[in-house]
Structures are given as structure tokens and as C-alpha cells.
Design a protein that fits this description.
Heat Shock Protein 90, five-stranded antiparallel beta sheet, 12 strands, 12 helices, Beta-Lactamase, alpha+beta, five-stranded mixed beta sheet, 497 residues
């Protein structure tokens, strides 16, 4: 429900954003259209009447001069010109300029006013217009208001020893007043029409576009809902090709990770149940033995001989040692499993550690009638690791080897130096391990059936594996039925650089 609400809110926001953008774009388009259509109208008017001033000179100044020999303006001539021009186009205003650009005469000006005699038009746009033949869009000064720029036509004349310019404003004041009145209505209609059309098409396009653009988002919401409802195997199809590839692929990976974590939790729960059952069994056995012998001592204390009493006490002590070993291993493994043990790595001589372990296990090996050998070359280099953890790993491997090696068998410890590491191998002559069982022996509380009754918690090799993981190393096993078993791991050579 929440996902649907969020999705609807997002779609509404996207639609409103899209409508706002299109509305602003429509308003901008309307303003730009009005502005450029205005320029287009003026440029078209100028291009259409570009030669009007020259045509006027060629037609009207053949037999008459605009200025007589005394320097007076031929007002009658200009009256006829304006009459003819206004009959064709009432927007036109004709001005006579001297060679310096001063306004000499125009029927649209009040020449009795002092400011009229002082009017001067800039000749730069006029000369540019004449030089280009009217091919460029050029604005000139309005004689009525020099602050305004208007389209014009201009031509230079020479008549009766006089020179000057005919300057024609193509969109006069009366025309602009009428045009502005009509243009306001036109702009209102255009703006309103464009706004309505923009809103309509914006709404239509906005809804369709948002619906299309949020397709992948809706698929993501749907996948999340399916996952929430318990369909843990549902994934977004073609996630890497969608518009939200980063999000959809991340979702699929997240779903895979969650599913893997769930499987791990189930596996750990199953292993935990199995571990508790096995630990309970291993604890019950020595406890039962200890309890049984203690009860026997209590019941038959007066009937037992001294030798029997000593034997019973030895059995009780052995059971106690077994319990102590099991509890220590459980405690050690739990700390390794919880990452509570941090290795303190330092350089040390693996050869000295091997000699110490070989010497310490000689007595136990002789008791079990097993031959214990140490093989290594001279000059074994320093290795880098946690010496106490490495010693513990080798001890566990030695305990395992001595446990499964029969009488008159052999256990060999080999130290082999390589270029970048030193390999430690513990090999026994026991019954060996089948290939299909070799991957299981490092799992906690896994003991392979070899046909022999052997004690042990099943945590020794699991502890070795954890110690190797702390050293970024791996423990390898080489074995086969009736071929003995060899365990091998390597430690990096210590370098001074």
C-alpha cells in the first residue's frame, strides 16, 4: 500500500513538473514567436520597398528639382509625392535630408517648430543601406523621435547643383499606432491559444511520457512487493538493459545476497542443531564413565583392592581430561568463529618451532609405538605469522596424525622452503580418507568412519582451517584409502623490504 502511494505521488510530481516545463516552454515560444515575427514583418517590408527611394528620385526628379537655385524646398513637389505615396501606403513618411543629414522638409513635420530645424539623422545606417543596395536588414533613426529605430528606404540625389538624400520611413507613426492596437489583441489571442494548446498537449504528452518513463520504476516496485510477499526467487528481467540499470541490477544483486544470507542462516541453524546434538553426545559419554566409576567406588569401596581403586581413578582422570580438552576446543573454536582472535603476526623461525614440537611429541609417539620423524633442510628462512596460532595448528594436526596412525606406524613432519613461502607437511601412515570425504573433514564436528574407535570432538581440523584463514592461507589434504594422510599449508617468507 505504501509503495503504491509513493508511486502515485512520484507520478503526480513528475506530471506536474512536466506540465510546468512545457507551459514555460510554451510561454517562451509565444514570446519568441511574437518577437521574431515582428522582426520578420519589418525585414520583409524593408526588402519589399528597398528601392522605393531610388524609384521616387528616378520618377519625380527628372523634370523637377527638390531644391531650387535659391535653396528653397519645392513643397509642391513633395506634396504630390506624399499624396502618391499615401495613396499606395499610408504607413510611409518621406523626408528630404541635406548632404549632412539635416531634415530639410517633410509634410509630416511642423517646420515652424524650432526643434524641427535642428533635426539631424545619423547617416551611417543610410550610407550602409545604399552601399549594400538594401540587401541587409538595417534600422535607421525616426525623425519624429530619434530614440526609436525604424525600417527605411533611402537614396542619394544630385539635382540642380544640390545634393541630399530622400529618406523614407516605411512604418510611420500612424501605422504603428494602429498596428499596436491590433497587435495587443493578436498577442492576447495568440498567447491564450498557445497556452491552451500547450496545456492540452502537455497534459497528454506528460501523462504518456511519465507512464512510459516510470515503467522500470513500477517494475522495481512490483518486484519489491513480490519479494515482500515471500517470492524470494523473483528477479527483474533484463535489469542491465533498463533505464534504471544501476538501481535494478543493484536490486537483483541485493535479492541474491539476501537469499544467500537466508540459506546461510538456515545452514548455520542446521549445523548448530547438529553441533549441539554431537556435543551433547560427546559430553554425555565421558560424564557417564566418570559418574559410573565414582558410583562404583562409593558402593564397592571396601571390596576394591588398591590396584582396582588406582585403575578406577585413572579412568576417571582420563574422562576428566577428555572433558577438559573438549571444552577447551569448543571455547577456542567459538572465539575463532566470532572473530574474537586477532593474529599478532611477526617473523619467526619455523624450524625452531618444528624442533620443539617434534621433541614434545616424542614421548607420546613412543607410548603408542609410532615412529616420529622430522625432515627439513638447513637454512630455512624466517616466516611471517602468529607463532602461537601456527603452533596450535601444527599441534592439532599432530594429534590427528597420532590418533589415526596404528602401532608401528610412522608420522613425518616436513619443512620445505620455496622461493616465496615455506611449506609445512604432517604425514601419517594411517588408514587414509576417501576422496569424497576429504572436503568434509574440515567442517566442525565431522568425523569420518575409518573402522576404528577414535576419541575426539571433531573440532581439531576445523580450528586448523580457521587459523589458516586468519593467515590468508589454506590447508590442503592428500590421502587415499590405505595410503595414509598428509596435511599441508604454507606461510609467506619474511622480507625486510
Amino acid at each position: 500500500m505504501k509503495n503504491t502511494i509513493l508511486s502515485n505521488r512520484l507520478i503526480k510530481k513528475l506530471v506536474l513538473s512536466f506540465l510546468s516545463i512545457l507551459l514555460l516552454a510554451g510561454t517562451g515560444y509565444t514570446i519568441a514567436t511574437i518577437y521574431f515575427s515582428n522582426d520578420y514583418f519589418y525585414e520583409t517590408t524593408q526588402r519589399l520597398h528597398a528601392h522605393l527611394a531610388q524609384d521616387l528620385i528616378d520618377e519625380k526628379f527628372v523634370d523637377a528639382s527638390p531644391i531650387d537655385s535659391l535653396g528653397n524646398v519645392n513643397k509642391a513637389l513633395f506634396g504630390d509625392i506624399m499624396h502618391d505615396m499615401m495613396a499606395v501606403n499610408r504607413a510611409i513618411e518621406v523626408y528630404l535630408l541635406d548632404i549632412e543629414g539635416h531634415v530639410q522638409y517633410s509634410v509630416v513635420l511642423d517646420h515652424n517648430a524650432p526643434e524641427t530645424r535642428q533635426k539631424k539623422i545619423s547617416l551611417e545606417p543610410i550610407d550602409e543601406f545604399i552601399s549594400t543596395g538594401g540587401s541587409l536588414y538595417i534600422l535607421g533613426e525616426d525623425p519624429k523621435d530619434s530614440s526609436k529605430k525604424k525600417v527605411f528606404s533611402a537614396a542619394k540625389f544630385k539635382k540642380g547643383g544640390k545634393e541630399g538624400y530622400i529618406y523614407i520611413i516605411l512604418a510611420g507613426e500612424d501605422f504603428l499606432t494602429t498596428r499596436n492596437m491590433l497587435f495587443s489583441s493578436y498577442a492576447l489571442k495568440l498567447g491564450l491559444g498557445m497556452s491552451l494548446l500547450t496545456l492540452f498537449f502537455a497534459a497528454l504528452l506528460g501523462i504518456l511520457s511519465v507512464w512510459y518513463l516510470t515503467k522500470n520504476l513500477r517494475e522495481l516496485v512490483y518486484a519489491s512487493k513480490r519479494f515482500q510477499d515471500g517470492d524470494l526467487n523473483y528477479r527483474i528481467k533484463n535489469a542491465s538493459k533498463s533505464d534504471l540499470a544501476g538501481v535494478t541490477t543493484t536490486y537483483n544483486k541485493m535479492a541474491e545476497t539476501i537469499l544467500e544470507d537466508i540459506d546461510k542462516i538456515k545452514s548455520l541453524e542446521s549445523l548448530r542443531t547438529e553441533l549441539i546434538a554431537n556435543i551433547s553426545h560427546d559430553l554425555r559419554t565421558p560424564l557417564s564413565v566418570i559418574q559410573g566409576y565414582i558410583e562404583t567406588l562409593q558402593i564397592k569401596d571396601t571390596e576394591l583392592t588398591k590396584e582396582q581403586r588406582i585403575e578406577y581413578l585413572k579412568t576417571i582422570n582420563a574422562g576428566g581430561e577428555r572433558l577438559k580438552k573438549l571444552i577447551n576446543q569448543l571455547f577456542e573454536y567459538s572465539k575463532l568463529e566470532a572473530n574474537q582472535i586477532k593474529p599478532k603476526k611477526e617473523p619467526f623461525l619455523i624450524s625452531e618451532l618444528a624442533n620443539d614440537i617434534h621433541r614434545n611429541y616424542q614421548v607420546l609417539a613412543k607410548q603408542k609405538k609410532i615412529k616420529l620423524k622430522l625432515e627439513m633442510n638447513e637454512g630455512i628462512p624466517l616466516v611471517f605469522g602468529d607463532i602461537s596460532l601456527v603452533e596450535r595448528a601444527i599441534q592439532n594436526l599432530m594429534d590427528n596424525a597420532l590418533k589415526f596412525t596404528p602401532e608401528n606406524g610412522e608420522v613425518v613432519v616436513k619443512i620445505i622452503a620455496h622461493e616465496k613461502d615455506v611449506e609445512i607437511i604432517i604425514k601419517d601412515s594411517g588408514p587414509g580418507i576417501k576422496k569424497e570425504n576429504q572436503a568434509l573433514i574440515f567442517e566442525r564436528y565431522r568425523q569420518m568412519k575409518t573402522g576404528q574407535q577414535k576419541e575426539g570432538s571433531g573440532l581439531g581440523l576445523a580450528i586448523v582451517k580457521k587459523i589458516m584463514e586468519l593467515h590468508n592461507a589454506s590447508i590442503r589434504v592428500f590421502s587415499g584409502p590405505n595410503e595414509g594422510t598428509a596435511f599441508s599449508f604454507s606461510l609467506p617468507v619474511h622480507t625486510t623490504s
